[in-house]
Amino acid sequence: MLPDLQLAVRLQELDNRVTELTREISSLPKHIAEIEKKLESHTRKLDADRAALSANQTDRKKTEGEIQLQEQKISKLRGQMMDAKTNDQYRAFQNEIEFCEKEIRRAEDHILELMGESEPLDKNVKAAELALKEEKAQVEAEKQQARARTAEDKKALDEINQERARIVAQMNPNVYRQYERIRKGRRGVAIAEAVDGRCSACHMTIRLQFFQDLKKGDQVMNCESCSRILYCNPPVAVEDLAGESAPAVQG
After folding, report:
1. From CA 23, how far away is CA 104, in angstroms rounded?
2. With a threshold of 0.70, does the pTM exceed it?
3. Pick from 109, 99, 92, 112: which is nearest to 70 by CA?
4. For residue range 213-223, what is the model confidence (pLDDT) as tens digits?
């Protein structure tokens, strides 16, 4: 096979890998942002549950304080009843005491309601705190993995770009320019293998005579349908080309 074709095939492999690495590098921050957003949502939910539990406890203490005040008032009224001079005064004190006792019962019922509400709230808060702690640890671990993976990808990208530069230096400039022009116009794919008489990229059938010439591998040929550079036989390793000078493009 023409050395320039072998180099172009390897160049396509490298460019495909560059696309993969670039996509992964750009996707990792998005992934981290998504899990952090989810963590933030769970944190806000926990804060809301804590606020609800705190409000419940505050209301309960306030209601307990109201009961104490009513009890103190009843005690004072009972003392005043002993000094009542008339039946009307006595009944007035008695009515006030009954009203205070009614308020105490109302407050006690409210406390029971608050206690019923606080139990599930307390369970939710404790469960959410535990889950959030585990989630934070998981998010931090994923962030560390993402940072490590990004560093690995960038290192691999540097190595690929270095190899790419070496290959470009070996290629015939006309072939490289053609490769780049096609790659930019064909969504990053400039090279395609001819398999079973078809272009593996556009899947169009190759003319018999064209295919016979292509199998010789002695010139750069383009698919008549999609214009991609075609090759027929698997190329040898690029390393085997070391020391060889790329011949001029024929045709």
Report:
1. 68
2. no
3. 99
4. 999 888 999 99
